[in-house]
Amino acid sequence: MTDAAARLEDERRRLLASITSRDADVAGIVAAREGSNVDDEHDPEGATIAFERSQADHAADSARRRLAAVESALRRVEDGTYGVCEVCGRPIGEGRLEALPATARCVRCAARGDR
Ligand SMILES: [Zn+2]
């Protein structure tokens, strides 16, 4: 399982870096907006800034969700339950773990959707 832990750590570092840069994007967009003193409702540029900001916010949210999944997988590595399906308790296939290292469900339970 050390390979899995190393992959998860890599993924965690990558996500943290992308969250940091996305936060910087959002901060930059907000600063641009404050500096330009535009009216969102009536200024076409204001609408663009609002749109860019919502795109950046959305990307940061999805990176944070993935980070949460990776961190919970790392906790499972520590407590020895990594690679075991959280729903049925059977081992998760090696190929699936390679493709989706942070997954907590076997392919069958994942296909069945949410609990
Ligand atoms: Zn399962």
UniProtKB/TrEMBL annotation:
<dbReference type="Pfam" id="PF01258">
    <property type="entry name" value="zf-dskA_traR"/>
</dbReference>
<keyword id="KW-0862">Zinc</keyword>
<protein>
    <recommendedName>
        <fullName>Zinc finger DksA/TraR C4-type domain-containing protein</fullName>
    </recommendedName>
</protein>
<keyword id="KW-0479">Metal-binding</keyword>
<dbReference type="InterPro" id="IPR020458">
    <property type="entry name" value="Znf_DskA_TraR_CS"/>
</dbReference>
<dbReference type="GO" id="GO:0008270">
    <property type="term" value="F:zinc ion binding"/>
</dbReference>
<dbReference type="InterPro" id="IPR000962">
    <property type="entry name" value="Znf_DskA_TraR"/>
</dbReference>
<keyword id="KW-0863">Zinc-finger</keyword>
<feature type="zinc finger region" description="dksA C4-type">
    <location>
        <begin position="85"/>
        <end position="109"/>
    </location>
</feature>
<feature type="domain" description="Zinc finger DksA/TraR C4-type">
    <location>
        <begin position="80"/>
        <end position="112"/>
    </location>
</feature>
<dbReference type="InterPro" id="IPR037187">
    <property type="entry name" value="DnaK_N"/>
</dbReference>
